[in-house]
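The data layer described in this paper is built around a simple, fixed record for each protein. Because each token names a local backbone shape, the row as a whole describes the fold. We quote a single record here, exactly as it is kept in our systems:

***
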Amino acid sequence: MLFAPLRERNYRLWAAADLVSTGGTWMQVLGLNWLILSTTGSAATMGIVVMLQSLPVLVLGGWGGALADRLPARPVLIASQALRAALALALLAHPRPQLIFAVALASGVIAAFEGPVLGRFGAALVPREALGSALALGSVLSSAGRIGGMALGGVLVGLTGPGVLFGINGLSYLVVIGALAAVRTADLRAMPLAAPGDGGVRAGVRYVLSQPVVLIVLALSFVLGALGRNYQVTMAAMVAGPLHGSPGSYGLLSTVFAVGAVAGGLLLAGTGRSTLRMLLASGFMISVLQFCSALAPNVLGFAALILPIAAGAVVFDTVVSTRVQLDTREDMRGRVLATLGIVSSLSGIVGAPAIGWLADTLGARGALLLAGAATTAAALGGAYALARAKGRTLRLPVPRRTAEQAA
């Protein structure tokens, strides 16, 4: 199951291009962060950039999903990649704060329409039964691209400045456009488009609201995303606070987290078991481990827990994405994926400030304890709700006593 998606030529083309593009994206992120801090000295300005990238997804995501269900994916993706290349090259020419804000906002608008289209296109690259493995491999490539992009970008930004990183990112989008042009359309799995009278935002909202299993999965994704995904905040708070670590300690934890993310993606791709049970098990596991991480005595103990947390988080997020696609109509997929994107953006916008406030109020350990308890309760509640929605009864495994034990 691990390499099943790679048997498809179209998927191999897309995976290679996506790896290059992801690396370029993270190089640009690093370059932007360096540029903002070096010119303004303000971390708040970085927060504004992140907000400008997230807000369009919340406002326009529904319309993006509706269009994704009505338009052919490949031409839309070629256009979006060309626009992203132009934005990267604009940063190369005029890297001023006002332009950075404008590029961040424009990138968010593109993402609002591009995200659902990417989901539909990715599903068309592989057979339906290989979708779970394809998404898991995509997570591995995303993590690998992030590691490679940040590592190479960290070297180049000191030697050449951030402009070269923007130029490399712009060129990476041309690689994606080339891959899209080389895709064999005859080998793509047919994805039905929405009927003219059934392609609106309201139709998508009505459909999502009529799917209890999808609603429960989305609710779990929001709670665990808001209270259990902001590891950059909690890792920094723990290192600077009770663990008494150094900047090198934070770098170690970030590396361990990246390794765990890759391991989780490989594990899921190998098993191909993107089931609701896997979703609940991974959600419960990372919630309990998050609670336990608050009690870590030192940086190495914290790192030992971060590794399985990162692996479980990738498994959970990938299964969420797989289930909301497999458990919904294909002509509604764009709108369902748009809803997932909105939920993910909301969890980040709500969760990061909430975790930061908890860390300031209760301390880093207190924030992890409270958030871990809340997400553990949410995972158990989600299991009960899914059992009810599926018409099943939750049964805990009870070991049977043997005759010897009974005697």
